[in-house]
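Homework help board

Subject: predicted structure for assignment chain

Our instructor gave us this sequence and asked us to write out the predicted structure in token form, then describe one feature. I got the tokens but I'm not sure how to describe them. Can anyone check?
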Amino acid sequence: MITKYFLKKRILRSIDSPRPANLIDFNDAKTIAIVSMVTKDLRYNGAGEELNRFAAGSNNEFFFYAHPKLQIPDDFIGGKLHRISGKDFSFFGFPKVHLLENIRAKQFDLLINIDFSNHIFSHFLSSEIPAKFKVGLSVDEFTNIYDLTLRLAENNTTDEFFKHLNFYLNALKGKPYEK
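My token output:
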């Protein structure tokens, strides 16, 4: 009996219901913020065509955390980058004032955290960037940051993440699934 109670509580915590008033889909979003990590070989978690399509939008921006010594080309993902590194935080891990001002400067319709590595900095960025609707991967400690979380297999790519996300956003709005 007690085991079922706690199991039910855990299941309910893992299912996040978005607030219907804020629900938005890709076609409705005029501004999209994408949060991720960039690795040494300039990969951003297997991102492919879908991420490049979103980055190509005129009002879409890409926020990422990368090591300070990592050289990033100016045209990387269309050049609409907000780079965050360890230099933007104090010795004790607190964000510096200029970082908070930069990431809070613009309001977005949709924020998508595509950090499959579950790095603490990507969740920090997601919590600080103002957005009407926030989507991320389901992580027990950080589900309260997002309006909608998705639980995907570890081997999923970013394109698969966007495909699932589009399906669920359309389903929640009562739209038929389009391939």
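Reply (TA_rk): Your tokens look well-formed. For the description, you could write something like this. The chain has five helices and six strands. That's the kind of observation they're looking for.
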